[in-house]
Specification:
By secondary structure, the protein is of the alpha+beta class. It has 14 helices and eight strands. It is elongated.
Length: about 425
């Protein structure tokens, strides 16, 4: 039986494991520094320090890696969530108190174990606890405290950078994956909130910012569960990307779009109660080649360039005039294969600015939502209607459907 980790667990591991690596690497640096400073010996006249043999070293290395991972798990999965709405001052005080207690506990737990290993005895031996008492009032305890605090500060600094950039993007920066531009194929999802202007006017800018934050939080689970990466937040728009392999595996990209819709429907009552309005969005999806690389003079970013981004933005802009919430481009639709829980119907060939030939688009439909115009399906997969596509005007848009002037050529695409 094949062992398979869920996308949520894999993402958690990608975020937490680097903490263990940071603590482990710093422990080796500190060990080398202590060895050099002590001329190859780690001993004191009061007998409080532990002489490091193979067994103690193995335990120490495992302990620091585990402690690092625990710090990562607590920081990212607990403290950040509990303190998200608190002021900076409250966060600093709360984290200082917590980590002071936490690191003290680490020393109280690990030092007796290491001392017992060195002495070849058990934890019940009174000499072990005498060593701990002597260590607590020795200069070695100060040195250990400085090392622990240094490891903590470095790992928390990494956490802040990682949370702002995303763990995958930060890893790509650190290993220089895109220092030289690379060509690859990716799937993109462009989503745009419905009626955002009227919602802003209704809520006011400060209240709308809270609304937008809650909106993005509601969408985050679907992106993680379907292995997507948030490429950009642009006002009320979100751009999600996958490698072609990840996006097509189990139709992750279209399942993500549908899951985002379902999650918003599930939170609709909460939004109505808190803000008086529930959000919704329209989205476009397409696959194609991009060039990926680091770019920027005053600050560096990993960016994608290619026609597929323009296509996807313009596909999304056609959702409203074509009367569809989610549109899929022809190239992506042809690659999706069979799938359960969703269907598509052709809305005809549409002209996209910058494309010489019209592109056939497909409306993605979710049976769970009880769509009124669910397509005919023989089991699962892509289906095409047995009737001609809806009438299209000379511009490639449905007759009578105006092109939104502010979306015809989205900036930065």
């Amino acid at each position: 039986m094949r062992f398979h980790l869920s996308p949520t667990v894999r993402r958690a591991l990608r975020r937490v494991v680097p903490f263990g690596v940071i603590w482990f690497v710093l422990a080796q640096v500190f060990a080398i520094s202590d060895y050099a400073a002590g001329g190859g010996a780690v001993a004191t006249t009061d007998g409080s320090a532990i002489e490091v043999d193979a067994g103690v070293r193995l335990f120490a290395n495992l302990a620091v890696a585990v402690v690092g991972c625990l710090v990562g798990a607590v920081e990212l999965l607990f403290l950040n969530r509990r303190l998200a709405a608190r002021s900076l001052g409250t966060k600093l005080v709360a984290k200082t108190l917590f980590y002071t207690i936490f690191l003290t506990g680490v020393v109280v737990v690990t030092f007796p174990v290491a001392a017992a290993l060195e002495m070849g005895t058990g934890l019940a031996d009174p000499r072990v606890w005498d060593r701990l008492q002597a260590f607590a009032i020795s200069k070695e305890s100060l040195s250990t405290g400085v090392q622990l605090v240094t490891s903590l500060v470095v790992s928390l600094f990494y956490a802040e950078i990682s949370e702002h950039m995303g763990p995958r993007v930060l890893t790509n920066f650190l290993i220089g994956r895109y220092h030289t531009p690379k060509e690859e194929r990716r799937v993109f999802l462009f989503s745009d909130m419905k009626s955002s202007t009227s919602i802003t006017e209704r809520l006011g800018h400060a209240r709308y910012f809270e609304f937008l934050r809650a909106y993005y939080n509601a969408l985050a689970g679907a992106v993680v569960d379907h292995e997507g990466e948030v490429y950009q937040y642009i006002g009320d728009e979100i751009v999600v990307s996958w490698t072609e392999t990840d996006g097509l595996r189990d139709a992750n990209c279209v399942r993500c779009a549908l899951a985002m819709k379902r999650d918003l429907r599930g939170r609709a009552a909460w939004f109505e109660d808190r803000f008086g309005v529930a959000p919704d969005f329209r989205a476009g999806l397409q696959v194609g080649p991009v060039t990926t690389g680091e770019i920027g003079a005053l600050k560096k970013e990993i960016v994608f360039t290619g026609d597929v981004l323009n296509q996807t933005a313009r596909i999304q802009a056609l959702c409203k005039p074509l009367g569809a919430d989610i549109l899929v481009g022809d190239e992506l639709a042809s690659r999706l294969g069979d799938g359960e829980g969703w269907g598509v119907r052709s809305v005809g060939h549409q002209e996209l600015r910058g494309k010489d030939q019209p592109v056939e688009l497909f409306a993605l439909e979710d049976p769970v939502a009880g769509a009124a115009d669910e397509p005919e399906r023989s089991g699962v997969g892509l289906t095409r209607p047995s009737v001609p596509p809806r009438p299209v005007g000379a511009s490639g848009i449905l007759s009578g459907g105006p092109w939104p002037p502010d979306r015809s050529d989205p900036p930065g695409r």
